[in-house]
Amino acid sequence: GESKQPLSFYQKARKDLLRHSALTRVLVIPARSELISVCLEEDNDLRVDCRIEPKPNKINSYEFSWSSGTKESLINTNVSGSAAEAQFRDKSEVVELEPHGYRMTLKGFTETLPHNTTYMCKISGQVESVLVEKEKLEPCSAVSLFLKSSWSWIVPLLICLYRAYC
């Protein structure tokens, strides 16, 4: 017969990782979209982060807009020939995010937001959108803390699973 070699550390770890991949997958994926997030900053400004990766060899253009009901309003853009609506012109600013994407901050509109608002961002022709209820807008500190901390607890979890099943 075939002699069974003991599993190496890496083979065991890989086997356990595969066995628990369904659990890990559930824990790693946040409830919000990976590419667009909406939150309230400490000063009550609305923040929309759009992390669409641009296509290579394309000029990076962006558009931020929202819609409630059937009306879509353009908040900020760098697309030539397009202009933000007058009510937003001096109220919003956009900065570039690393490694890719843009962050739009809008001042003075959180009190007058409709109950349900769809936030949209378009980078180099690719569109992402998310529907947010006004009452469920989270503070940005909670969003960034979740995104920053998710890997910091995944690694100890995997080590714990490894120890439990080895």
From TrEMBL:
GO terms for molecular function: GTPase activator activity; integrin binding. GO terms for biological process: cell adhesion; integrin-mediated signaling pathway; positive regulation of focal adhesion assembly; regulation of cell migration. It is found in: Cell membrane. It comes from Fundulus heteroclitus. The keyword Cell membrane applies. InterPro entries: THY1. The keyword Hydrolase does not apply. It comes from the Eukaryota. One of its GO terms (cellular component) is focal adhesion. Keywords: Cell membrane, Disulfide bond, Glycoprotein, Immunoglobulin domain, Lipoprotein, Membrane, Signal. This is Thy-1 membrane glycoprotein-like.
